[in-house]
Every structure is written in structure tokens, then in C-alpha cells.
Amino acid sequence: GLLVRAAFVRQLIPYRVITFVGPTANRVRIRYGMKSELVISPANPEKFLADLSARTPHLCRQGEARVLDYA
């Protein structure tokens, strides 16, 4: 899963529950579960998006973002 660290908090998000990944002004927006969302600032957003895209095959490309395909 995706391990997110912020100060003293750590959160593990299973890849299978991620429903959206997309760039936003040198940051990356991630939606997961029914209505949870976070914005992170990886050192290299493009590389991070490419790596996360490889780990979330259930998401489909829509522009620069990856979204859940309901079809």
C-alpha cells in the first residue's frame, strides 16, 4: 500500500481503495475510499505519479489524472 507520513502520523492506504490520483500545482491529489482525500508533495511528482499508476491498474487515464473505471 501507499505509506503517507506527516509529522508524527503515518497512514497506510491500500492501493485497491485509491479512486483518483492527479497532479495539482507541484502536488499530487489522492482520493481513496468513499470520501477521503489528501494532497501530498512528493520530491518528484512526475516520477511518483508514474510509479503509483503502475501499482493501481484498476485506475484509467483521464488527461493527466488516473480515475476509477466503473465500466
Outline the structure in words.
- By secondary structure, this protein is an alpha+beta fold.
- It has 1 helix and 7 strands.
- The protein has one helix at 45-55, and strands spanning 2-6, 9-13, 18-24, 27-32, 36-40, 59-62, 65-68.
- The strands form 2 sheets. Strands 5-4-3-7-6 form a 5-stranded antiparallel beta sheet, covered by helices on one side.
- The longest helix has 11 residues, at 45-55.
- The chain is globular, with a radius of gyration of 12 Å.
- The chain starts with a strand and ends with a strand.
Set down the secondary structure blueprint.
Elements: E1 2-6, E2 9-13, E3 18-24, E4 27-32, E5 36-40, H1 45-55, E6 59-62, E7 65-68
Antiparallel strand pairs: 1-2, 3-4, 3-7, 4-5, 6-7
Mean pLDDT figure? 92
Task: Write the element-wise H/E pattern from the N-terminal end onward.
Answer: EEEEEHEE
Distance between the termini: 24 Å
Count all strands and give the number: 7
Main sheet characteristics: 5 strands, antiparallel
Helix content: 10-25%
Strand percentage lies at: over 45%
Rg on CA atoms, Å: 12 Å
- Spatial shape: globular
Strand order of the largest sheet: 5-4-3-7-6
Q: What is the SS-derived class?
A: alpha+beta
Low-confidence stretches: none
How many H/I helices? 1
